[in-house]
């Protein structure tokens, strides 16, 4: 649904994006994770060409946006919704007026606008709040208005620029749940910019980790979790590094209640010491990471058994 190839964005001598490739599949929630200054917001603005890249191409729904003139680009942008970190609502308009604004620009007749606005406010849980002003709303409600406005033109792609970073944890979870529901019910492809790992863990199917204008790691979360040495895995499960000499790090997916450790101890003549670990609930299911020390003549056979059981086994030097 979204494909960026060789994206470079330069402001004078400052390079904000340095050869970025991004591939977002239709219908997924894709997170771009990085600290401030990593280039992730610049990447988002290049996807809908609010920032025109210095080099490279951006294709959305099969259409090369970088090849379009202004009129065709404006038309293409109607299929790309965007929600902002600080809501960007018009204080002079009501809630309904804010949601209707893009429809007015598109020339949608008044009766159709009113019907569509009513549908959208109900969809985001703000039915009956259309006459309120933005200052009467909580932060979470303001963001729901922003989401409704972004959906006004029936987009196939929704871009989210740190949409939850100004919200408290409970409100953040409610907004993420709303985005996940919209993704499921409407088939929306969502590209989500964040610096919060919890956002990625809660709703994302795939992720790209950015630093200094480059993507350091990307792919489906389920695949990255099963990739030895993955940076994503290390950040989700922050065990002390480097791993102690002779230790083994085990990564497992699926049912975390499986008695793999006790099975190994029963089957093999080994002593097993747990050095650290945790279990996390990701959008695709539970994942665990455990660091252990194995001693005994049958330790190699025990490690082979763990690999055969589907665990990722990483041995420290």
TrEMBL record:
One annotated GO biological process: amino acid transport
**What are the entry keywords?**
Amino-acid transport, ATP-binding, Cell membrane, Membrane, Nucleotide-binding, Translocase, Transport
Q: How is this protein annotated for GO cellular component?
A: plasma membrane
Name the InterPro entries for this protein: AAA+_ATPase, ABC_transporter-like_ATP-bd, ABC_transporter-like_CS, ACT-like_dom_sf, MetN_ABC, MetN_ABC_transporter-like, NIL_domain, P-loop_NTPase
Report if keyword Lipid biosynthesis is assigned.
no
Classification via CDD domains: ABC_MetN_methionine_transporter
Asked whether the UniProt record includes ATP-binding among its keywords, one would answer yes
A matching Pfam family = NIL
Domain ABC transporter stretches: 2-237
Q: Which GO terms describe its molecular function?
A: ATP binding; ATP hydrolysis activity
The function of this protein is:
Part of the ABC transporter FtsEX involved in cellular division. Has ATPase activity.
Q: What family does this chain come from, according to its entry?
A: Belongs to the ABC transporter superfamily.
Self-association state and partner proteins as the record states: Homodimer. Forms a membrane-associated complex with FtsX.
In Swiss-Prot or TrEMBL terms, this protein is called Methionine ABC transporter ATP-binding protein
Source species of the chain:
[Actinomadura] parvosata subsp. kistnae
